[in-house]
Amino acid sequence: MKRSLFVPGAVLSAILPVALAGASPARAQALERSVAVSTVPDGAGGFNAFFGDAFNAADSGSGFTGLFTFEVAGTPFDASASTTSSFLDSPGSKDLSITALSLYRYDPRTLNVIGNAVAGIDLTGSGDNPVDSWAVTGLNLASGAYAIRVDGRVAGTAGGSFGGDLSVSPVPEAPFHALLLAGLAGGALAWRRGLALPPAARERPPGRAA
To answer: How many domains does the chain have?
Structure first.
């Protein structure tokens, strides 16, 4: 029986203060938003999702933290996410600056972060006011509740926005790999035994005496 792998989940917005514990007083004034992503099955036991946020002129100059949450149940999995900023009409400046992207697991009962966050990689190009681009990948993660976290600052006078995508896929179970390796090992052993026989024995039709 095929077991259910992915279960969309909702997380209390209270996770934001917990995730920001230890931040400086100025950082605590940042715009803080949390939302559970809407997942779309990929037909192979995993799912895809899109996430993002937009800000208006009133948010100009503010920092922000966005949490995009999801749950995985039943088996270890791999996850990858990427996000980019966008330009509006602010002359001479970036509309929005992304400063960090990360992926982490947390306990939905206590809202405590479990283990270490997986830090994203800054892929932003060079030049004047390049569009920010970040990516993060987590491999062989345990099932549970997770969050993609995007940190940044609204730089443009007209606001700004960012968008991203999330891809989650199950890790093949260990018994599958064990059977595959056993089959390969058995085939290799049979081949080696065949090479060890004298040429006449290898060519003799089966069932015929010498």
So the answer is: 2
Count how many Cα atoms sit within 13 Å of the Cα of residue 102 in the half-sphere of its side chain. 16
Q: What is the DSSP letter of 198?
A: -
Domain annotation covers residue 184: yes
What is the residue range of 105's domain? 15-171
Choose the weakest-confidence range: 24-28, 48-52, 153-157. 24-28
> For residues 165 and 48, is the Cβ–Cβ distance under 8 A?
yes
pLDDT in tens, 143-180: 999 999 999 999 878 888 999 999 999 998 655 444 44
The answer to whether 79 touches 177, Cβ cutoff 8 Å, is no
Q: What are phi and psi of 168, to 5 degrees?
A: -125, 130
CATH of the domain at 62: 2.60.120.680
Enumerate residues 6+ apart whose C-beta is below 8 A from 139.
78
